[in-house]
From TrEMBL:
Task of the protein: Catalyzes the interconversion of 2-phosphoglycerate and 3-phosphoglycerate.
Species of origin: Limosilactobacillus vaginalis
Top EC class for this record: isomerase
Name of this chain's protein: 2,3-bisphosphoglycerate-dependent phosphoglycerate mutase
Active site: residue positions: H9 (tele-phosphohistidine intermediate), E87 (proton donor/acceptor)
EC number from the UniProt entry: 5.4.2.11
UniProt site positions, description: Transition state stabilizer: H176
Keyword Isomerase part of the UniProt annotation: yes
Record-level Gene Ontology MF annotations: phosphoglycerate mutase activity
């Protein structure tokens, strides 16, 4: 019985300031660091031994991953970084305050951009470039819907994570709100018109348990007080 724990990174400065971030690097806040420590302490209490860990190319996720692994005394396990686990690219919304965007376009449009499945936020006029992606030959998006995020995420799931779970190896993923929503949609088979109801809070782990055929046998929302609220 293999276990998968997915965690959204701790609070970032952009989360605190209500800013669209996407592929922009922003640091964790003190609260974000504490959230990572709390996740690590709870996973240590649960005694889960991970075989591999996976995270994005974004520093807020990488640092949260390092904090968790240090707290569970498993810094020695392999950590795989991939752009495919990055947050969705919010295009021209990146760097803008969400409240101000809401004033300009209305709550309904903002909700579709943030929580819808196929809605693409306003695109950038020019493609951005960063060495971290150029060196891989990866073209940074002009903007991404959740559907587009899921499309670039699933090959990594199918090639790197799913086979390990089928071999009975426990996996840890530390990523982002949108990339994890895309994964949850796939795992839980959530219809397109219902994914807007799914929220992944910062520093709130979710535990999936799988049989050898990769069928989900249990899903648990892990709380930080030692209690677990789950459903089979």
């Amino acid at each position: 019985m293999a276990k998968l724990v997915i965690v959204r990174h701790g609070q970032s400065q952009a989360n605190r300031d209500n800013i669209f971030t996407g592929w922009t690097d922003v640091p964790l806040t003190e609260k974000g660091i504490e959230q990572g420590q709390m996740v690590g302490d709870e996973l240590a209490r649960m005694g889960i031994q991970f075989d591999d860990a996976h995270t994005s190319y974004m520093s807020r996720a990488i640092k949260t991953m390092n904090i968790i692994l240090e707290r569970i005394d498993q810094l020695y396990i392999p950590v795989y970084k991939t752009w495919r686990l990055n947050e969705r690219h919010y295009g021209a919304l990146s760097g803008l305050n969400k409240a101000k965007v809401k004033e300009e376009v209305g709550a309904e449009q903002l909700h579709r951009w943030r929580r819808g499945y196929s809605e693409v936020p306003p695109k950038l006029k020019h493609r951005q470039h960063e060495r971290r992606y150029d060196r891989l030959g990866v073209k940074m998006p002009y903007s991404e819907s959740l559907a587009m995020t899921q499309k670039r995420l699933l090959p990594y799931w199918e090639d790197q994570i799913a086979p390990r779970l089928m071999d009975g190896k426990n996996q840890l993923i530390v990523a982002h709100g949108s990339s994890l929503r895309a994964l949850i949609k796939y795992l839980d088979q959530i219809p397109d018109d219902q994914i807007d109801q799914v929220e992944v809070p910062n520093g709130k782990p979710i535990l999936y348990e799988f049989d050898p055929a990769l069928n989900i046998t249990k899903k648990t929302f892990i709380t930080m007080d030692g209690e677990e609220n789950g459903n089979s």
